[in-house]
Design brief:
single chain, 259 residues, alpha/beta, seven-stranded parallel β-sheet, 7 strands, 36% helix, 12% strand, binds flavin mononucleotide
Length: 259
């Protein structure tokens, strides 16, 4: 499952629920930096053992980023997914029209240090220049992060062969072909088109290639695998499914933790 910031507006434990579903399905779950569940809480609530990965937005406050990385390490996360396609937040008209912001009873615990340092609010500032890296993340940041963690690095948001090959030079374990579900920038290439160029270029390098964006059918997944992807990630469909057919109060973890 791909990383969703999961403002679980009415339901603070949405990430835990999705983790449980991932465990049942035997698939990786990736927790967002901006999730409303903490790295530690999610790891502790793990019902079985699906691999957990941590997504990293490189925040302005470098100590805040280090805290996220250390927390991921000590809580058994298996990889660090660095999102590189969100140097600034794209103009998302639906969010702007609906004036979406985090309700006061929720917080973004993984950004606590970064928010504190910036004297910023989880409700309004998590994607603002107060907290996010300005100027945007660079290859130097990738080298720096690699030097401070043993976790494998995955770069999420790569769309060109040039960047993919550069990522290999920087020693990343995998690249994740993604256009952020088309939510960041209009007119981005489709990820299947990008994958069809990137996967052959990386063949034999040892760097794995993943992909997400618009996968809705099993046949979509098969096409990506045939084009050279090692794995396919799913974002919105799991949110739609939850919205449509899950009644939170009736759901219980195996250990009877009521959601
Ligand atoms: C509500 C929502 C929140 C998202 N939050 C994040 C995030 O915090 N970090 C990130 O790297 N990508 C985020 N994404 C992008 C997804 O990880 C993923 O790239 C995209 O949703 C895949 O496309 P799909 O939804 O068509 O499967 C988000 C997407 C959605 C729909």
């Amino acid at each position: 499952m791909t990383t969703n910031l999961l403002r679980s507006y009415d339901w603070n434990k949405l990430s835990n629920f999705l983790l449980f579903a991932a465990a049942e399905a035997g698939v990786v779950y990736t927790l967002s930096t901006t999730a409303t569940t903490s790295i530690k809480d999610l790891a502790e609530s793990r019902p079985k053992s699906p691999p957990l990965w941590m997504q990293l937005y490189v925040v302005k406050n470098r100590a805040g980023a280090r805290t996220i990385i250390r927390n991921a390490e000590v809580n058994g996360y298996k990889a660090l997914v660095i999102t590189v396609d969100r140097p600034i937040t794209g103009l998302q008209l639906s969010r702007w029209r609906n004036r979406i912001k985090l309700p006061p009873h929720l917080s973004t615990p993984n950004l606590a240090d970064a928010l504190k340092e910036a004297n910023a609010s989880a409700q309004t500032d998590i994607h603002s220049s107060k907290v996010q890296v300005i100027p945007p993340i660079t290859w130097k940041d990738i080298a720096r992060i690699k030097s401070i963690t043993k976790l494998p690095l995955i770069l999420k948001g790569i769309l060109t062969v040039e960047d993919a090959l550069k990522a290999v030079k920087y020693g990343v374990a995998a690249i994740w072909v993604s256009n952020h579900g088309g939510r960041q920038l209009d007119c981005v290439p489709t990820t299947l088109d990008a994958l069809s160029k990137i996967a052959p270029a990386l063949a034999g390098t040892g760097c794995e290639v993943y992909v997400d964006g618009g996968f809705r059918w099993g046949s979509d997944v098969l096409k990506a695998l045939a084009l050279g992807a090692r794995a396919v990630f799913i974002g919105r469909p799991m949110l739609w499914a939850l919205n449509h057919s899950v009644s939170p109060p009736s759901f219980k973890f195996e250990n009877n933790t009521q959601l």
